[in-house]
Design goal:
This protein has three helices and seven strands. It has helices at residues 9-18, 59-65, 102-113, and strands spanning 22-27, 33-38, 41-45, 48-55, 70-76, 84-95, 125-139. By secondary structure, the chain is of the alpha+beta class. A seven-stranded antiparallel beta sheet has the order 2-1-5-6-7-4-3, with helices on both faces. The two termini are 16 Å apart. It has a single domain, classed as Electron Transport, Fmn-binding Protein, Chain A (Pnp Oxidase, Chain A, Roll), CATH 2.30.110.
């Protein structure tokens, strides 16, 4: 019987807190996958678990605003026995800047800018909350 390589909940929480980049996949206008790396924070909310601060001018913004389906992958490790991460389907929700929880802004500012002050409003960015479904995780470190 194959070992269960699924990340336990506590390991998953720690992983998402420490991981710095997620890859977001949308479908472009020609029907091709468009995958981009984005910074994110994991802050569970009724609208979603992962939050990205997305450039307004990016093509993916329109696809996300339209409620398009997307996918995410977050992973780490270099050698085979170090590989761990998760992939999931994601449903994006655009969140008005004034409605973004202070905890999300603070976590983002701390994680990426080393600041104790919540991230201020920026006209050139839009927040999206990503609700995950059909998640799959793996943790090859569990192989021993």
């Amino acid at each position: 019987m194959a070992p269960d390589l699924t990340m336990p909940a506590d390991v998953r929480r720690e992983f998402l807190a420490e991981a710095r980049v997620l890859r977001l996949a949308t479908v472009d206008d020609d029907g091709w996958p468009a995958v981009v790396p984005l910074w994110f924070v994991a802050q569970p909310d009724a609208r979603g678990e992962l939050w990205v601060w997305n450039l307004n001018r990016a093509r993916r913004t329109g696809r996300l605003e339209a409620g398009g389906r997307c996918g995410v992958t977050i992973d780490a490790g270099r050698d085979y026995h170090e590989l761990h991460g998760l992939s999931a389907r994601a449903t994006p929700t655009r969140v008005a800047d004034d409605d973004v929880p202070v905890a999300v802004r603070a976590a983002y500012a701390h994680k990426y800018f080393g600041s104790d002050e919540p991230l201020p409003h920026a006209d050139h960015h839009t927040w999206f909350a990503l609700a995950l479904s059909a998640e799959r995780s793996w943790d090859f470190r569990r192989l021993g």
